[in-house]
């Protein structure tokens, strides 16, 4: 399958539900992290984009799904060494947990998996905007900044 075909292949309703579930899960986790650290970060989405890029680079391998999940395990195992902040390993764990929960590495076509996680990355921003808890956290951050 060429890159053009990959980009135009349609997702089924069930696959869209998976993309939305992953995005919502990760947006909620980002909210929790942001509340704990008192900052408005997009670290999970940033790290997830890198992981999706890794899948994209390997999607044509016959065992791309397995490679993807091994990479997630590697990142969680070595997150402190490869991470960029004190939260990066937590981001990796959240991404791994969401992918393990919603994606089946043995049954899912890697090209479809790529489409699902690609849309999930985009949808994280939507769920951060639509989530009332996110708005509350953003309002708190703005109020805190205004107090300075």
Explained architecture:
It is a single chain. The chain is an all-alpha fold and 148 residues long. 79% of the residues lie in helices and 0% in strands. It contains eight helices and no strands. The chain has helices at residues 3-8, 13-37, 43-58, 64-77, 79-82, 88-102, 110-130, 132-147. The longest helix has 25 residues, at 13-37.
Please give the alpha-carbon distance between the first and last residues. 54 Å
Low-confidence residue ranges: 134-148
Helix count, per DSSP?
Answer: 8
Average pLDDT value? 84
Biggest sheet overview = none
Strand composition percent: under 5%
- Alpha-beta classification: mainly alpha
Return Rg in Å. 16 Å
Principal-axis shape equals globular
Extended strand count? 0
Helical content stands at over 70%
Q: From N to C, what is the helix and strand string?
A: HHHHHHHH
Task: Give the topology.
Blueprint: H1 3-8, H2 13-37, H3 43-58, H4 64-77, H5 79-82, H6 88-102, H7 110-130, H8 132-147
Helix pairs in contact: 2-6, 2-7, 3-4, 3-6, 3-7, 4-6
Concise overview:
With about 150 residues, the protein is mainly α. About 80% of the residues lie in helices and about 0% in strands.
Structural features:
disordered C terminus, globular, mainly alpha, single chain, 148 residues
């Amino acid at each position: 399958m060429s890159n053009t075909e990959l980009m135009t292949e349609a997702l089924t309703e069930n696959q869209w539900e998976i993309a939305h579930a992953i995005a919502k899960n990760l947006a909620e986790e980002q909210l929790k992290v942001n509340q704990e650290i008192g900052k408005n970060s997009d670290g999970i989405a940033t790290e997830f984009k890198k992981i999706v890029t890794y899948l994209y680079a390997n999607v044509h391998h016959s065992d791309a799904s397995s490679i993807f999940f091994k990479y997630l395990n590697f990142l969680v195992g070595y997150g402190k060494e490869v991470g960029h902040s004190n939260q990066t390993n937590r981001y990796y764990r959240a991404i791994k947990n969401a992918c393990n929960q919603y994606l089946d590495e043995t049954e899912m076509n890697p090209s479809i998996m790529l489409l699902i996680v690609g849309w999930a990355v985009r949808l994280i921003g939507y769920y951060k905007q639509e989530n009332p808890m996110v708005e509350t956290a953003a309002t708190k951050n703005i109020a805190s900044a205004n107090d300075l």
